[in-house]
## 1
Amino acid sequence: MLALQGDVREHAAALERAGATAVPVRTPDELARVDGLVLPGGESTTMSRLLVTFELLEPVRQRLAAGMPAYGSCAGMILLARTVLDGRPDQEQLDALDVVVRRNAFGRQVDSFEADLAVAGAGDEPVHAVFIRAPWVEKAGEDVEVLARVPHTAEAGDAADRIVAVRQGRVLATAFHPELTGDDRVHRLLVGIAEEDVDLEER
Ligand code: GLN
């Protein structure tokens, strides 16, 4: 896990339950040793600044460009995106997902919102999704697979149909926080992607 800011501990616990060894990444050396990276929820503008301060911005960009498996939740999704709307002018993007995200998209009406979502690849049972000052994906490029959209419910209102989980190649992102609900299926998806890589290396 990128361990500069945000809910790192919750992601570590989810990764361990999903069968991975979770290690904090704060230096380029630590980054070089991981098979995949989780970018936690928190505050994307702060994380962006800390990525620069800890000299991790370019190394993370390079590993993502080279195909490192990654998963970002909420603020992590914002960082992975190519373009952010309603971000700070100096906010850095990792450019690993060909999407336009809108920051604090739900937050204009409500700070948090919960919904049961069908998430492609996570099995038949819906995922109980907790959104906290969450972004949504306003536009997704051709190579981006949409994994989940906000369902049509009374609470969802205008947010219905908005894209809230995506995958492009080995990179996953959700606008919500599965690490907060004890549902490890999204983390299992990431671990599965990282394991495919290891299988290939061993062949
Ligand atoms: N609003 C936060 C941001 O812009 C994201 C919130 C979250 O990660 N729960 O980074």
Note: The longest strand covers residues 97-102.
## 2
Amino acid sequence: TQTLHQLAAAKGKYFGSATDNGELSDTAYTAVLGGGEFGQTTPGNSMKWDATEPTRGTFSFTRGDAIVTFAQSHNMTVRGHTLVWHSQLPSWVGSLPAAEVQPAMVNHITQVATHFKGKVFAWDVVNEPFNEDGTFRATPFYNAMGSSYVATALRAARAADPDAKLYVNDYNTDGLGAKSDAMYNLVKQLKADGVPIDGVGFQAHLAIQYGFPSQMQQNLQRFADLGVDVAITELDVRMVLPRDATKDATQATYYSNVVKACVAVTRCVGVTIWDYTDKYSWVPSVFSGQGAALPWDENLQKKPTAYNAIVAALGGT
Ligand code: G3I
């Protein structure tokens, strides 16, 4: 039988899982993470601004390096996550005078992308730029520079690491709607302006109680048709606890639909689940009473419904 990544690779794509530093000391966990199911990983926290530049001009790459080392020794590639984001942003950034924000942002991007040059194949350069209605989120970056911060960030990333694929990444843009229209218009404009953008990330943090995103495959395809890659970057499918067979079956359908959408779109480069096991999922701490979002349970056992649905969507048996 083939692993998820082997099945994806046969279609020219990767299948990956996020991870985090604390989990790397859990040997039962790392046995699965590095055991062949996943050909790619994303650090869940350790390349973010608060981890890499907690104080202005003082950089720390130890935790990010540890993820890279694990990945390299287990034949996994790394997506860098994330250079410019309003969350997990040290307070010093938000306290800067407006004129200082651009130089601080460009320096951050330059230092971090230079350090990880050759170690990450892609960067989420800008994460979560939009509000739900498609307006730009009022972050320190937007407030100081307006929407041009996105182009400035992408250009700085390209200058620091010319070989990395540069992405803008967001959630609730998986299907058609106001927020994905805003992302579409942004990417179209960036391409028209000659700004270096290589891909769009669709986080795909889904919940069975909210329904499946509208026309995901068509949505991915319209971005691909702009001339960028697309990727499913943070997939998980949560439910209101407790689990039962009906919810598990719905969850499996969601996993299948997402993977099938990626398989159907030539420029969809791969799928990353936001860790592989409920033991380390972010969901219960943010959505009280919800969870069971991943294809492996909290005891690191595969959930046959979700796992087999992914296998089948990847063309396996
Ligand atoms: O490391 C500290 C630890 O020292 C402390 O004892 C503990 C107590 O609160 O907190 C630990 O930090 C937590 C960190 O995860 C590491 O576990 C933070 O509180 C917690 O807020 C942080 O959550 C992360 C979250 O982003 C923050 O926004 C999740 O792990 C991470 O999975 C999640 O990932 C995001 C993506 O980056 C962007 N898209 C949405 C996705 C889910 O929120």
Note: Residues 44-45, 87-88, 127, 171, 203, 234, 282 surround G3I (CB under 6 Å).
